[in-house]
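BUG: 3D viewer hangs when loading the predicted structure for this chain

Environment: internal workstation, default settings.
Expected: structure renders.
Actual: progress bar stalls at 90%.

Input used:
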Amino acid sequence: MRLIALLRTFFVLTLIVSIASALAAIVARGRMTSHGGPADDELDLVAIFEGMELASTAPALRRASVTTWYGGGSLDLRDATLDPAGAEIAARAVFGGFRLVVPPTWRVETHGIGIFGGFGDARNRGLVDPEGPLLTIKGFVLFGGVGIVSEAPDLDRAEAAEAPEAVPLPA
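Structure tokens produced before the viewer hung:
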């Protein structure tokens, strides 16, 4: 009986937190906006009740902030260059998440808190250059996740579909 009461309390509290979070996200949606574009060295990306995708070509990326709240997306840094001093990403994912795509040689450190979610690095650690640029990810995840990968076939297919078809040159 005691276990059932505890589970019922947990379920009710989770439901209250979910409803409060959804209401707060509705209010925040009009106030929080994304800033920066593909070539900017500082980015603020926000996805609330929506998706977002950005492929960065920054010449010296220093700082990025990514907030997903009942939303998600991808930040592709494979064509970006980190600032020589390194770069930091502030990651916040609440009932959502995002994928961070980085070159396989970059060093990535994560310092975050995950509550019913977390940070995951699915890259091949054998390819990381110990002297390579350092990307630090700090933040928190609540009922969501932040995934770090070096390959994103779905993004590559989308780029290939958008590329103009090759036209044979006359002989």
